Amino acid sequence: MSDKDLVKELLAGNEEETKKFFYHQCYPLFKSIYDHYCTDCTSCIEFINEMYVYIMAKSKTTGKSKLEGFNFESSLFYWVKVVCIYYCYAKFSKVTKRNDIQSEILDRKCQASDSYNIDLSQLARNDIEAIINMMPNRRYQKLIKMKYLDDREPEEVADELCVSIDNYYNMHMRARKQFLAYYNLEDKR
């Protein structure tokens, strides 16, 4: 099927072609972007869903979706790749700007008021690992294990996760919140 035909099918809401294109053909692309960029999604499928909505939703100002603006100057696959990367880059830029403004509340500078110090003497290592394994985001699990159980420096963890140090601190903040949410769940049992 040509790109023009595929775009027509996608815009017409053809469910079979949509699943085939977004969830099969483009899955490796989305997985790669999900693994390497700052997103709030807890899984690659959630990221694909978010990108589908972003590409297909009609703009309030123009009344057209991003896909309707695709002008066939490149392949549809390459266009989706560019749109996704710019989308993630814009989200990451916003997080960085917000953190630059609020640098005093970053967890690397001071403790966030809504979190606890993670004290390994309070819980047995096995209990902590069990709580970490309950976390749905595997990258957050890895970050928490390396930072707190292996006692590694932020730069080492960032290198291991293949992220910038700024992205590490953003991930760390979210990973820590997720860990504490599951810690509190276990504490209530």
Explain what you see.
By secondary structure, the protein is mainly α. 66% of the residues lie in helices and 0% in strands. It contains 9 helices and no strands. It has helices at 3-12, 15-25, 27-36, 44-56, 76-101, 125-134, 138-149, 154-161, 165-188. Helix 8 (154-161) packs across helix 9 (165-188). The protein is elongated.
What's the number of extended β-strand segments?
A: 0
Largest sheet: none
Report the structural category: mainly alpha
Unreliable stretches: 93-120
Radius of gyration using CA atoms only: 20 Å
What oligomeric state do the depicted chains represent?
A: single chain
- The span between the termini is 55 Å
Number of helices: 9
Strand content: under 5%
- What's the mean pLDDT score? 77
Tell me the series of helices and strands, N- to C-terminal.
HHHHHHHHH
Question: Which shape, going by the Cα principal axes?
Answer: elongated
The percent of residues in helical segments reads 55-70%
Task: Please name the defining characteristics of this protein.
189 residues; mainly alpha; 9 helices
SSE blueprint and pairings:
Layout: H1 3-12, H2 15-25, H3 27-36, H4 44-56, H5 76-101, H6 125-134, H7 138-149, H8 154-161, H9 165-188
Helix pairs in contact: 6-7, 6-9, 7-9, 8-9
Write a short abstract of this structure.
The chain is mostly helical.
